[in-house]
Design goal:
- By secondary structure, the protein is α+β, with helices and mostly antiparallel strands.
- The chain has 3 domains: about 150 residues, 3-Layer(aba) Sandwich (D-Maltodextrin-Binding Protein, domain 2); about 130 residues, Dipeptide-binding Protein, Domain 1 (Dipeptide-binding Protein, domain 1, Alpha-Beta Complex), CATH 3.90.76.10; about 220 residues, Roll (Dipeptide-binding Protein, domain 3).
- Helix content is about 30%, strand content about 20%.
- It contains 17 helices and 18 strands.
- β8 and β9 form a beta hairpin.
Length: about 550
């Protein structure tokens, strides 16, 4: 430890001790450690980058591992393990030179660790739902879907030597640096995974290449990380230990932040925005988010295999009421699936009935349902499944009422479920209509539209399959000209909006409570805030 750092820790010891004392024995850290307490959205199902599926898992995994690219404090992609790179003229081949780095046990991180990771996640036996994000890589889809005829060696990821990695693509992907910040692309410690199998992620076995390493995990209580002394940029890391708490109950999380028990919480209830701005104005952070809330229809079963029924139910939802009276944090109603802020995209696709009044929309919805055979003698009854986190329990009865406004013979039963279980049911097709959210993994329209591709089932929850849509997306991805590519993507999106296998509800904003002592937090559209960028104001002053 440097003399400067020792002085920083001594100066901050009192403040850090107070923070840890607020959580009792939960800190479990050294007495001179700088400790950060973070509220997280939910309890992770796994911290294995190949098993993870939610932002609450990404928040933790991204503190432990770093890929070829990583996130700056503002969420933008910057070089991580990639020291430099070259791109072929046709955009189909990227060659990366890796920086010298070690795993937390001192073993070198090599290009083979990346190859091992890519092959593992695309192995269907890994059961990774998120593997489909990697389909832009050459042969990723056939390796994942038909390994018998497409062995892992055919995947377009090659270790040229220990510090040189080449990635070959199916089509030009100008967004690749953003994709390579995602946890699906992280290297894995092959020497550890091969020894321990799926147990490699347990605290006693895990080795990481990022700023932190897992110390302990108490289910539904906290996850504890400690600084990785072998991290290549360790000298610029301020926080020694970080605790992540699963906070499904926003009201409880708000109290813990206000009481000093947590430094950060990743969300707060929209209806409390004004109160929080009055009580703790310096804590409140609200920013536009690169994502949306949308509902999915299970199109494999009647009556939701009928586009008239899907459009009718989507028409009837009063999106303005949801954003203005329920969410109340600056969200905008969504009448497209791709948010308007996405790069290199014309945002011309739009739901055809978006400008109709609510009365006209409900009247038209009633007509469509009657055309589909529903009425007093054949009522429409279905179940709407929603997540019990955040504002979702308040939205569910509102949309239930909206559907009832169509006609007395339309009835939706609502049932709530914990987020991980809810999404597992959606992927399994065990639902009729279900809510969900999507946050972009990288800033490109394809990261939204791939969710409508036939090949993306079961992440394509609705199991929508449309040959014209699939063909248009595929052809768009072959375009080198970004304007042409964007225009074709928008044409594909229009098919998705006309068919309505999904119903966009509203674009998101990200909300957080951040103690003003915390420095390095930059509001951004991806809502990614890695702990290695954070510090405390009193530590920074002592360093001066």
């Amino acid at each position: 430890m440097t003399l400067t750092r020792r002085l920083m820790l001594m100066t901050a010891a009192g403040a850090a001790a107070l923070t840890m004392a607020a959580c009792g024995d939960r800190s479990g850290g050294d007495s001179d450690s700088v400790v950060l307490h973070r509220g997280n959205n939910a309890e992770p199902l796994s911290l294995d980058p190949h098993k993870a599926q939610g932002v609450w898992e990404n928040n933790i995994i991204g503190d432990m591992f770093i890929g070829l690219f990583t996130e700056a404090a503002d969420g933008s992609p910057i070089p991580g393990m990639a020291e430099s790179w070259e791109t072929s003229e046709d955009g189909l081949s990227w060659t990366f030179t890796l920086r010298e780095a070690q795993w937390s046990d001192g073993e070198p991180v090599t290009a083979n660790d990346f190859v091992f990771g890519f092959r593992r996640i695309l192995n269907p036996l890994t059961l990774s739902e998120y593997s489909k994000v990697l389909y832009p890589i050459r042969n990723a889809r056939p390796v994942n879907q038909d390994p018998q005829n497409n062995p892992p060696e055919t995947l377009g990821v090659t270790a040229v030597d220990d510090r040189t990695l080449r990635i070959d693509l199916e089509f030009p992907a100008p967004y690749l640096p953003g994709l390579l910040t995602h946890y699906t692309t992280f290297p894995l410690p092959a020497h550890v995974v091969e020894r321990f199998g799926d147990a490699w992620i347990q605290p006693q076995n895990i080795q990481t290449n990022g700023a932190y390493i897992l110390v302990s995990w108490r289910a539904n209580d906290f996850i504890h990380l400690r600084r990785n002394a072998n991290f290549w940029d360790n000298e610029n890391v301020c926080i020694d230990e970080v605790f992540f708490y699963p906070m499904v109950d926003n009201a409880a999380a708000e109290r813990r932040v206000r009481n000093g028990e947590m430094d950060i919480n990743a969300d707060f209830a929209g209806q409390n925005l004004q109160f929080l701005r009055e009580q703790i104005p310096d804590y409140v952070r609200v920013h536009q988010y690169m994502g949306l809330t949308y509902f999915s229809f299970n199109t494999t079963a009647a009556p939701f295999d009928d586009a008239r029924v899907r459009n009718a139910l989507s028409m009837a939802i009063d999106r303005d009421f949801i954003v203005n009276e329920i969410r109340r944090s600056g969200e905008e109603p969504a009448y497209s699936f791709v948010p308007p802020s996405i790069a290199d995209y014309p945002s011309t696709a739009r739901i055809s009935w978006a400008d109709m009044s609510m009365d006209a929309r409900r009247a038209r919805a009633r007509e469509l349902l009657q055309e589909a055979g529903f009425g007093p003698n054949n009522p429409l009854r279905f179940t709407f499944a929603y997540r019990t986190s955040g504002d979702n329990p308040r939205v569910a009865p509102v949309v239930q009422r909206d559907w009832a406004e169509i006609a007395p013979w339309v009835r939706a039963d609502i049932v709530g479920g914990e987020a991980q279980i809810h999404y597992a049911n959606m992927r399994a097709g065990d639902f009729q209509v279900g809510d969900g959210g999507w946050i972009a993994d990288y800033n490109d329209a394809y990261n939204f539209l791939f969710l409508g591709e036939t090949g993306s089932i079961p992440m394509n929850y609705s199991r929508f399959s449309n040959e014209a849509f699939d063909t248009m997306v595929t052809e768009a991805n072959q375009q080198l000209d970004l304007e042409t590519r964007g225009r074709m993507m928008a044409q594909a999106e229009q098919i998705l909006l006309d068919e309505q296998p999904i119903m966009p509800i509203h674009y998101l904003v990200n909300r957080a409570l951040v103690n003003p002592r915390v420095t390095g937090w930059v509001d951004n559209a991806s809502h990614i805030h890695r702990t290695r960028h954070l510090c405390f104001a009193d530590l920074e002053r002592s360093a001066e």
